[in-house]
Batch of 2 targets.
Target 1
Amino acid sequence: MKNRMSELVTLLNRYAHEYYTKDTPSVSDSEYDQLYRELVSLEEKYPNDILPDSPTHRVGGKVLDGFEKYQHQYPLYSLQDAFSRAELEAFDERVRKEFPEAIYLCELKIDGLSISLSYENGILVAGATRGDGSIGENITENLKRVKDIPLTLPQPLTMTVRGECYMPKASFDEVNRFRQENGEAEFANPRNAAAGTLRQLDTAVVAKRNLSTFLYQEASPTTEVSQESVLKKLSKLGFAVNDNRVLASSIDQVWNFIEKISQERNKLPYEIDGIVIKVNSLAAQEELGFTVKAPKWAIAYKFPAEEKEAKLLSVDWTVGRTGVVTPTANLTPVQLAGTTVSRATLHNVDYIKEKDIRKDDTVIVYKAGDIIPAVLRVVETKRVSEEKLAVPKYCPSCESELLHFEDEVALRCINPLCPAQIREGLIHFASRDAMNITGLGPAVVEKLFSQGLVSDVAGIYRLQVEELLQLENFKEKSANKLYNAIQASRENSAERLLFGLGIRHVGSKASRILLEHFHDIPTLAKADLDTIASIDGLGLVIATSLHSYFEQEGTQTLLAELQEAGVNLAYLGEKVAADAILSGKTVVLTGKLETLTRTQAREKLLRLGANVASSVSKKTDLVIAGADAGSKLAKAQELGIEIQNEEWLEQL
Ligand code: AMP
Ligand code: ZN
């Protein structure tokens, strides 16, 4: 078995490398899964033989107590900066005094954080942050969850390599969207997000967040002769190495590369903040040596910040789900970070006052990463009018008076019947981390709402296919699809519903904790304030908010309506693993069950990963039949579908 295990580990590591680092997978996902599962089951049977480089180390959570200090064997350096061509020319002069023929290697300066990886006999034994350059933090467990870092090398080498760990723009957007929906503070930029992720004590979070790396240095003594040959070697060893680099024999050539990358920068799937220029010859590097903190043989050219001037045309005020009214500036269009920007956020009413933004002002807009553009400040010298910006007194949606609470920076509409709030609430309800109803995005919600087909979340479940067919662009197929997605969402575990209700301060994490504790929403609704407040991870703010929500008239009616529509109000336990026994299988229950109630049977099936359907069709994989089963059983027999009884289900 040991042999098979080692064979599987080798294969899976190779496939993972092809997939994550080279982007050229040679097997299908399902083949990979199958081999992976075989390995998992062998490892369960023979835990003593688990190999140190098994890919199973990459997943699954461990909660760490903290990070230990890590003494770097070879110190990490920082880089001298340059902000202009003149500074690069000065650098070039210093280098050429000693090496008139110097050649440079220009690399992208990846905006992440430095990491150091140590391998012993080809096995990853330690990974650390830079810290102060000589002492960092040992984050080995977290770095093992970064999928493009090789756990083993193809040769039994003992070496230390350095590079940058970063969060791709797409992952960054996703993480922030999730945080925003949960009412958590968003990360300001991908670098903060990567740093925050690597300092997570829960390794499962790291595994989920899709960090990547680019390695660019062999810190331990090397036999290579140039920076370029080091990069080639690292790439051969299976490390992710950035291909976007160029050799240059003059600052002219360096500058060409800088200009080219400045143009293309926004199309890169990751953030960079400059170009690093390194003397290519390692012998010359050694000769040139170091200043107190940085090598004399390298310099980092930093891009200027992406800022532009634009003229403020007008301000839109929009009402969000919680009644907060947010100002957005309409601007004369400007090119910024690769896109045309004509709208930028003004954050909130207090921001406008603080920055003293006035009518027709010229303002500076900026965009950090793929974040929505924002107004940074006013160019006062270009002010044309002293007139202050008008701040609305009344809600732009329902016209009720807006409030500006003392402890808040925002304006708020507190009318619970405000159409804009209801519409935004519906969008939130259907969104991915809430009820996850595919096809029920903002545009469709807007139509359903404005045509009066849906006015509250329970109304979503009363929708009929015929009504959906009235919507613009809806055909039989799309209407059925949406209808089915709505029906399927009734089976969600109730933390999604609780989150979807959009109760202030109750994010998806709090929703889960609440339901783990109270099991279903009706029980939670009856819980007293102190009990809720005392639960680990919650507190008085959440408890108070929940309490007032459940006390509102209307809440009980809404819950009753949801229940009547067949929406599940109970917690169904841990999220089912992708490899649960009935994962992806469609199962139908029929007949009278003896020991389990229908609901219990259904919950058990859901926990095992099944989709529970109400009628038998060709798509059904399995029918569980109790006593006196009738037409569904007959149909299953006719279609040759697998049929099992209650006892079988209980034994699973
Ligand atoms: P700074 O933090 O501005 O002093 O810049 C130095 C940092 O740039 C290093 O610690 C690395 O983390 C980072 N860096 C990103 N890309 C590269 C690269 N290609 N070569 C060297 N350093 C890089
Ligand atoms: Zn309103």
Target 2
Amino acid sequence: MRTKVAIIGAGPAGLLLGQLLHTYGVDNLILERHTGEYVLDRIRAGLLEEGTVALLDEVGAGSRAHAEGLVHEGIELAFGGRRHRVDLKGATGKTVTIYGQTEVTLDLMNARRDAGLASIYEAADVTPLDFDTDHPRVSYVKDGATHEIACDFIAGCDGFHGISRASVKPSAIETFERIYPFGWLGILSDTPPVSHELIYSNHPRGFALCTMRSARRSRYYVQCPLEDHIDQWPDDRFWDELKRRLDDEAAGKLVTGPSIEKSIAPLRSFVAEPMRFGRMFLAGDAAHIVPPTGAKGLNLAASDAHYLARAFREYYDESSSAGIDHYSEKALSRVWKAVRFSWWMTSMLHKFPDTGTFGARIQLAELDYVTHSNAATTSLAENYVGLPY
Ligand code: APR
Ligand code: PHB
């Protein structure tokens, strides 16, 4: 079998890249370790920058995000017992759209199926080969038989634990990492959201976030110790803890109900440099991870897919290697700014075990500054809605 671009991983990065390449007339094939149902079962963040929505539109997969997504013009920061609104639209002219990553993945999967493009799910032992030569290949095992795909390029879109980055020799790659000393305990519930905008709360008991999936489905998170297990968090305990971390008005209005999903996720910042190794390119979580504060993970996967698809188009349409030669530098420049923003939001909003009362006072001063200085509000807002591509 032969294709121009062999894409490893059918998460948002791989699926969007595949659709963009198809739109540009570049044939591609996706290899995914799991089933489509498994990929769709993973609950992740759900906030899209305008640039991400525009990319879904570009590949004809944006109609449901427009119809069902909730457009938000602001967010609220809660601290010191009060809530303060950040007017995103007023500061930047831009909005964000609440629309679950699961839905984005489903829309892209449907677009790929409708276009009749090849995807091989349940591909085991996927291995990128010879990417430091002009003849890269990818081998995989399906139904007990080994197969090989010859290609021009390999796109490693296989997430943080994927095989692509792991296949690079250690001397060719540099990694940067920060592990945070807490996790996020998240629940989904079929209850109306407590507020029509997101509330990010800095509280002496720890961070809390009120977000949503629709007018009837809420998503809430509380900061929790990394060692905690969901069995220690029956619904009653979760709701009680969330209420304690909100201002009185929000706590009074909160509608509780049974959780339909509950999970704990660790928080990590991670970047691998470069994002290109000969004829293999990394995109999305395969190359970088951000903590969810600010919801940049999916949006970075989308901007990587955009840069990489444009680079391949330039290669095939204009016989120019300039795009692929600059991909890593271009993508990393946007990645590091989102890594900085996510780290900064995380640092400002969470309770850190080692910074004590001094650290807590500095956070309050920063939140007060951010919500009262036009310059600081604009800086938060322009990063939150997404920096330009
Ligand atoms: N072979 C084939 N597929 C693989 C392999 C492998 N060895 N390893 C991983 N995969 C698949 C995974 O099963 C998954 O479906 O690659 C896909 C990677 O998808 P994601 O982890 O969703 O990563 P990405 O597409 O980069 O999307 C980034 O997802 O993790 C969130 O917050 C993150 O929102 C961001 C987005
Ligand atoms: C979500 O809706 O799950 C979400 C929104 C914003 C964040 C993180 C998660 O910062």
